[in-house]
Design brief:
single chain; 346 residues; alpha/beta; Rossmann fold; Dihydrodipicolinate Reductase, domain 2; six-stranded parallel beta sheet; 15 strands; binds nicotinamide-adenine-dinucleotide; Gfo/Idh/MocA_Oxidoreductase; Gfo/Idh/MocA-like_OxRdtase_N; NAD(P)-bd_dom_sf
Length: 346
Amino acid sequence: MKRLRMAVIGAGQIAKVTHLPNFREMDQAEVVGICDVNLDAAKALAEQFGIQNFYQDHKKMLSELKPDAVTICVPNKFHCRMTLDALECGCHVLCEKPPAITVREAWQMEEEARKRNLVLSYGFHFRHSEHVALMKEKVRNGEFGTIYHAKAQWHRRRGIPGWGNFTNKEMQGGGPLIDIGAHMLDAALYLLEYPEITYVCATSSDRIGKRGGCSLMGSWNPDCFQVEDGVFGFLRFENGTSLLIETSFAINQKEKDLRNITLYGEKLGASLFPLEVYGEKDGQLTDSTYPFMEMRDWHMDSDKNFVNACLGQEELLVTAAQGTYVQKVIEALYKSADSGRPVIME
Ligand SMILES: NC(=O)c1ccc[n+]([C@@H]2O[C@H](COP(=O)([O-])OP(=O)(O)OC[C@H]3O[C@@H](n4cnc5c(N)ncnc54)[C@H](O)[C@@H]3O)[C@@H](O)[C@H]2O)c1
């Protein structure tokens, strides 16, 4: 069996807690090199995961090791440049989410992968959840009828990360929308089957982030808080469906962490986390729950899908074009929130 020779760029949290442990468990993949501007970080993970080569410069790693595929785990600002560098070296790429900072970058990445006939995917692992998979099946089977409205939410009561680059606009491109909201947006748009967008409008706030206060995810410095702490948006699609997206790092709500996707169809409605389906049968209103559903490891399934797609053994679930679509929505939501006007999509 051919094994995919992989390299990892970025030896931070996501590489350490998800991708490297996952790849280590896969017979069909082998990590041959890791790179980080912080050479000590690359060395530490190389030792921990038994990776033979570690580097400080990703271009040197790509040219010396010539891996089949690369996983990009660096701050968002570098996603585009590093993805292009890897594609130009003939590597398939799994880039962490969000695809990039701008839609122009995401488009460039998609084009380059298409031109070179290489796999490009993004770390939108919620798509691999058992809940989303079952709902997708029901949507495809027409069980909802027309879905005329949906809601995607990820709110944290006080979840402004006190580490890393999450409040640095230049590095990340934004706050909760581009970081956590992107996951819910991606999964909701996947369920809605990417309809053409007519217009987008949004508001945002940075009031709590800039003021400071209690924290549940490490303490942050309000003087260095450069991103939004919440975005509240509305999308209208050409088929008449609408989608609300709400996301925050900090908001005055009851729950510590509230993430959900809700679908409203003419025949059924559904709430995803936890999975419940609402309908009507035999003259009665019905609620269906799925208490014994087998839980999957979403990150693992996402990594396996990428590896198997590179080996030509599985269809890729998260495509580059879908990543560009999500990036387009994120950019439009920010533009509308900043300008105070709806953004009409072309
Ligand atoms: N899919 C998910 O649920 C999920 C979860 C967390 C993070 N992420 C994404 O993963 C990416 C990294 O996040 P993280 O939490 O691991 O961050 P992190 O800060 O822990 O790690 C980033 C690493 O990149 C390194 N780096 C920075 N510039 C570099 C360069 N030019 N060359 C090589 N290395 C460089 C840093 O030194 C650091 O070690 C982000 O895009 C983030 O959005 C995704």
